[in-house]
Design a protein that fits this description.
This protein has 7 helices and 11 strands. With 217 residues, the chain is of the alpha/beta class. The chain folds into 2 domains: 98 residues, Response regulator (Rossmann fold, 3-Layer(aba) Sandwich), CATH 3.40.50.2300; 95 residues, Orthogonal Bundle (Arc Repressor Mutant, subunit A), CATH 1.10.10. Strands 2-1-3-4 form a 4-stranded parallel sheet, sandwiched between helices. The chain has a 4-stranded antiparallel sheet with strand order 5-6-7-8, with helices on one face. The longest helix is centred in the middle third of the chain and has 15 residues. It is globular.
Length: 217
């Protein structure tokens, strides 16, 4: 049976950045460039060793968009990353302007750069995820959330009504492909549910046993 298509809210382009070697590049992309909402930046430590596993995790979640890697990896590592499924492996020494141009080029090819912005995001007709201020607002009720909680909720919202697998959340939010024994994702989901309940929306986030989580429509 063929795999079902990815949700229309799945990012069109994922950019994996080696934050060990290229932390400054990641900061510049995040702070100074208005990348489209259809681009997801993921920090991966030591991408030469872990990049192939991250790419495989992405493809395993039915992600069919572009995968760009920014790294200072030597030629043999870049070949391995391309063989694992990356579309481009870019040397960060090219400069941020050229890297952003590669992202725009990839978006033109996938025809996803026409998506409308998702800021602020509506979790339901009354409940809003304010991504600029990291808060959830429901009428006169408001609760602050952490940056990690915002990222988790944003991924769930982009896939609203569809199951988001645990492996996909781990990869997108933390750049890892498997869970440690600390169950950090469960802790964040519990915290998000507690904060949703604080503003009067306790039941919109469901756990799908053995799979992941879904934000109800």
């Amino acid at each position: 049976m063929p795999a079902p298509p990815a949700s229309r809210h799945t990012p069109a382009c994922v950019v994996l950045i080696d934050t060990v070697a290229d932390r400054l590049i990641a900061q510049q992309l995040t702070r100074h460039y208005a990348l489209p909402d259809s681009v997801e930046l993921i920090d991966v430590r030591s991408i030469a060793q872990r990049g192939a596993a991250v790419i495989e995790a992405l493809r395993a979640t039915r992600f069919t968009g572009g995968i760009l890697i920014i790294s200072r990896s030597p030629t043999e590592d870049r070949v391995d990353l391309l063989d694992a499924g990356a579309d481009h492996v870019l040397d960060s020494s090219r400069g941020v302007d050229e890297l952003v141009a590669w992202v725009r080029s990839n978006l033109r090819r996938t025809q996803w750069d026409r998506r409308t912005p998702l800021l602020p995001e509506h979790l339901d007709p009354e409940l809003t995820l304010c991504t600029r201020t990291n808060a959830i607002v429901n009428d006169e009720l408001r609760t602050d959330i952490t940056e990690t909680e915002r990222r988790i909720l944003t991924v769930l919202l982009r896939n609203r009504g569809d199951i988001v697998h645990r492996r996909h959340l781990l990869m997108v939010v933390w750049g890892v492909t498997c869970e440690s024994t600390t169950n950090v994702l469960n802790a964040y989901i519990w915290s998000i549910r507690r904060k949703l309940a604080a503003v009067g929306a306790p039941s919109i986030l469901r756990t799908i046993r053995g799979k992941g989580f879904v934000l109800l429509t």
